[in-house]
Amino acid sequence: MPDAMTGPAALAPRLRAVCGADGVVTDPARRRTYESDGITYHSAVPGIVVLPETTGQVAAVVRLCAEHGVPFVPRGSGTGLSGGALPRPDGVLVVTSRMRRVIEVDIPNERAVVQPGVFNLDVTRAAAPHGYHYAPDPSSRQVCSVGGNIAENSGGAHCLKYGFTVNHVTGLEIVTPRGDVVRLGGKAPDAPGYDLIGVFVGSEGTLGIATEITVRLTRAPQRTSTLLAAFPTMDAGGRAVSAIIAAGVLPAAVEMMDALAVEAAEAAVRCGYPEGAGAVLIVELDGAAEDVAAQFEAVTALCRAAGAFAVRAADDPAERARIWKGRRSAFAAVGRISPAYIVQDGVVPRTALGGVLARISELSARSGIRVANVFHAGDGNLHPLVLFDDAEPGAAERAAEVSGAILDLCVEHGGSITGEHGVGVDKACHMPRMFSDDDLATMDLFRRAFDPDGIANPEKVLPTPRLCGERPGVVRGEHPLVASGQAELF
Amino acid sequence: MPDAMTGPAALAPRLRAVCGADGVVTDPARRRTYESDGITYHSAVPGIVVLPETTGQVAAVVRLCAEHGVPFVPRGSGTGLSGGALPRPDGVLVVTSRMRRVIEVDIPNERAVVQPGVFNLDVTRAAAPHGYHYAPDPSSRQVCSVGGNIAENSGGAHCLKYGFTVNHVTGLEIVTPRGDVVRLGGKAPDAPGYDLIGVFVGSEGTLGIATEITVRLTRAPQRTSTLLAAFPTMDAGGRAVSAIIAAGVLPAAVEMMDALAVEAAEAAVRCGYPEGAGAVLIVELDGAAEDVAAQFEAVTALCRAAGAFAVRAADDPAERARIWKGRRSAFAAVGRISPAYIVQDGVVPRTALGGVLARISELSARSGIRVANVFHAGDGNLHPLVLFDDAEPGAAERAAEVSGAILDLCVEHGGSITGEHGVGVDKACHMPRMFSDDDLATMDLFRRAFDPDGIANPEKVLPTPRLCGERPGVVRGEHPLVASGQAELF
């Protein structure tokens, strides 16, 4: 542990020499604004904050950290949901919010080159005039950064068809935890040597900082249709999902919400979903116009056959946006119907979805803890929201138990402890539920190859004794971003 | 370097205790059958060969190697094209040919689980009755192993639309170079922790041996149409490719061959391509029937507009197979028109294709060395075949120079030194053309995290002084597999 002489505050003059006076934050009140990310249970005030603007500045900051044994934590927009950007009082927080330049849009090669602080949706905005978009679309895409997406290997509703972030990154410039600037890949599809892009994407800031990112652009589909189907029960909705996949349709997205999630979304954004639904299914189809039309008919018929009592179609952007608004707002909106809740994230093979949802219902009934389900049904990626009242003695503990038990269910059913939100500090202690000692030791060896001194986002991802026993992330009350109009945060 | 007492031969009794008497090959004549892979320039007789049948046996073999400091080289079917499976006289060759079990075909989850020795095409054969296939399709798919595909991150004609091997692997059981059995991923789409699958795939045997592989199965398209278009010049063919991509069509494959490659293919397999073509383009379209029909019309019109003088369509499997036979046979068939040739493999951003091909023509004209071009045009993945007569003094050297200059062209144009054949021993010394010292040092750190003693396929992939200066792989005369009916090897 660095002392005051070598700790982050002592580095301030040298950091100012690198990033300029306005690129270094030492004021306690300003530092406090970085104390947590998308979940507010974890918080810590960073020892010092730097706002570099160039790769050279990032490398110089990291080299200073390495030289003095000071840990650093990278941070994009701070919308993460597993505490991956949780600062350290003894460390430097490296914030990429001044690195927001779209460097190049190369349409003939279908690539964009961006700085890490660029907002996800801004890549699509830059490509849209050319008929392209950037496919990975986490619900927070208006404000989350591409660098953060790299760290978490972010998904989104459309990764069923288009894949995760890792499938869309072809080149990276990174600053390693020793301060070296290294290039991985480029614009061409497959680079020789180790595909370190694959492992850097999703490494949650523990292998360094991406300073320039080359992503694949995807041609905007000729037509996109969105279908909203209401079912009496989750079971009926699940049958529809299975029937759609079995019929060989590959929708761009298949999202499901249960009654409680629908109730929350209605309360927050009045999305106008059919009343009395036990489950709402959103199916998005995209591609060539006639193809989409044919699939749309097929999906409608399959939903009806599975018991849908209402099916609504949307082809125009405004109506589609209205359908999506409910879904994208659901997480944050749950604060309207519960004083506090845990945002859980797990994944199971799609065929296990029905079984796992039934077990979650049982867990909920037995514990008296309500669970709202919002999920990427096509991927088997569950997002249970575990609701409780933290004024009620013992409720938080029971909620944490239910939340943990859901992860056990996922692992039991051949799935994993996180679908797309990452491990961060939140799930580091759950890693041994999935991985053997050999598995974890291999990961640690790999980490140490990049970061021999353990200064890059330490105590995230891999379990350390200090962390285990902490509770998962809890949101209390309505999320502040719902009120401010940024409801589609998660 | 191990001496006779601790070298591979001394391990024979202990290896027999692990793999059984018939699982260990010490006889020099039998060992010699493993001396090279798909290119015959490099050869070395392995110190000893083992043929394990289970994960436990592979782990026990590797632990013995680790204990005694003996290097090991993994080998699948030996169809590689960069000398990645080149044995070592001082090492153990671990051959997976007895690990050919398809463990599970899980249609509801769209996955297959296979042992590493399973032939690529046998995954598709196992899935076909259910309407599925395994998408990555190197030309050698009848005989190459899935384990070898993992090692090389193999592509194939259809990776334009479907991606490389890495996009189709969701789970791996590996034996690390220290003999630990480690699981990466599974059937679910995204696992927490480091995505070591991404980096293991394409690591060319330097990080251990995959012993169980979980792959994604892809639904067979409703319809597949193949179009063969003949152009007067390569330029005209290239214009057609650009027009197709710019029109927003995403074909399953876009392959191009020049006049010399067509001549060789005709001589070998009489594929009946139109006479007098300066370039032949093969475009495969797949998807929903009406979609394919519409795209087919569009592609035909674009080819005609770019100057195609003949366009031939094939919908039925027999006619499609005939079109593909010429393409898939082209590499091996070049032996019919040249006593010797170098198989080169490079990649450039698609937009640079025209410029690079023109420069290759200039190189060829200036040096008097003929170059036949066969390539995945949609991906920008070139496979120039550099022809020469090794009876002619100095020809081999000039061919090697041309071949090396082609790689320089690829790097200059923002591409890379290998598209899909890997680095192996063949291109290890070219790595510094693409990567800085920091880049290579980072790769080496990563390698050593898995393999601290440097026993896993040493001297492959990363440059070592001993290797540099060697010539690229050369094939002399007609490849033996053309004569034996396995012409579609590469």
UniProtKB/TrEMBL annotation, chains A, B:
<keyword id="KW-0285">Flavoprotein</keyword>
<dbReference type="GO" id="GO:0016491">
    <property type="term" value="F:oxidoreductase activity"/>
</dbReference>
<dbReference type="InterPro" id="IPR016169">
    <property type="entry name" value="FAD-bd_PCMH_sub2"/>
</dbReference>
<dbReference type="GO" id="GO:0071949">
    <property type="term" value="F:FAD binding"/>
</dbReference>
<keyword id="KW-0560">Oxidoreductase</keyword>
<protein>
    <submittedName>
        <fullName>Glycolate oxidase</fullName>
    </submittedName>
</protein>
<dbReference type="InterPro" id="IPR016171">
    <property type="entry name" value="Vanillyl_alc_oxidase_C-sub2"/>
</dbReference>
<dbReference type="InterPro" id="IPR004113">
    <property type="entry name" value="FAD-bd_oxidored_4_C"/>
</dbReference>
<dbReference type="InterPro" id="IPR036318">
    <property type="entry name" value="FAD-bd_PCMH-like_sf"/>
</dbReference>
<dbReference type="Pfam" id="PF01565">
    <property type="entry name" value="FAD_binding_4"/>
</dbReference>
<dbReference type="InterPro" id="IPR016164">
    <property type="entry name" value="FAD-linked_Oxase-like_C"/>
</dbReference>
<dbReference type="InterPro" id="IPR016166">
    <property type="entry name" value="FAD-bd_PCMH"/>
</dbReference>
<feature type="domain" description="FAD-binding PCMH-type">
    <location>
        <begin position="42"/>
        <end position="220"/>
    </location>
</feature>
<dbReference type="Pfam" id="PF02913">
    <property type="entry name" value="FAD-oxidase_C"/>
</dbReference>
<dbReference type="InterPro" id="IPR051914">
    <property type="entry name" value="FAD-linked_OxidoTrans_Type4"/>
</dbReference>
<keyword id="KW-0274">FAD</keyword>
<dbReference type="InterPro" id="IPR006094">
    <property type="entry name" value="Oxid_FAD_bind_N"/>
</dbReference>
